[in-house]
Amino acid sequence: MKKIILATAAATLLASTAMTVQAAPAKAATCVGCHGADGNSMVPNFPKIAGQHAAYLEKQLKDFRDGFRKDATMVPFAKGLTDEEIKELAAFYAAQTAK
Ligand code: HEC
């Protein structure tokens, strides 16, 4: 009995971990309009960010936020992000497939 309960608990834990990895971070809701739901933007002026390296995405977002990279459109969306949110966003878009 104990084993079954443990196995069920482990399976539930695995399932919820898998879900959190795939779900878009909350902040991604603000990026959808320009970069698409999975980072494949439909409009050429908005770069595709799907499948780019997480370290690259993280650096670009921090550069926008901290004033090292300038773009009147993109900067306001990077401004409010914490390091943790940037890490989550970078990991999410890096895990998407570029189309
Ligand atoms: C209103 C449109 C808009 C929104 C909303 C927006 N972006 Fe952008 N984003 C842009 C534009 C335009 C650029 C290109 C800037 C440039 O040319 O330097 C860009 C560039 C980027 C880049 C750099 C890509 C590269 O190839 O170097 C990243 C990463 C990025 N955005 C992530 C995000 C994230 C994450 C969000 C949500 C928090 C977001 N963007 C919201 C318009 C937007």
Brief descriptors of the model:
99 residues; Cytochrome Bc1 Complex, Chain D, domain 2; 0% strand; binds heme C; mainly alpha; single chain; globular
Care to describe what's here?
Keywords: Electron transport, Heme, Iron, Metal-binding, Signal, Transport. Residues 1-23 form the signal peptide. InterPro entries: Cyt_c-like_dom, Cyt_c-like_dom_sf, Cytochrome_c_Oxidase_Subunit. This is Cytochrome c. This protein has one domain: Cytochrome Bc1 Complex, Chain D, domain 2. It has 99 residues and is mainly alpha-helical. The chain is built from five helices and no strands. The structure holds heme C (HEC). Heme C is lined by residues 27, 30-31, 33-35, 45-47, 49, 57, 60-61, 71, 73-74, 77, 89.
Secondary-structure blueprint of this entry?
Elements: H1 2-22, H2 32-35, H3 54-66, H4 75-79, H5 83-94
Helix pairs in contact: 3-5
Keywords: Electron transport, Heme, Iron, Metal-binding, Signal, Transport
InterPro entries: Cyt_c-like_dom, Cyt_c-like_dom_sf, Cytochrome_c_Oxidase_Subunit
Protein name: Cytochrome c
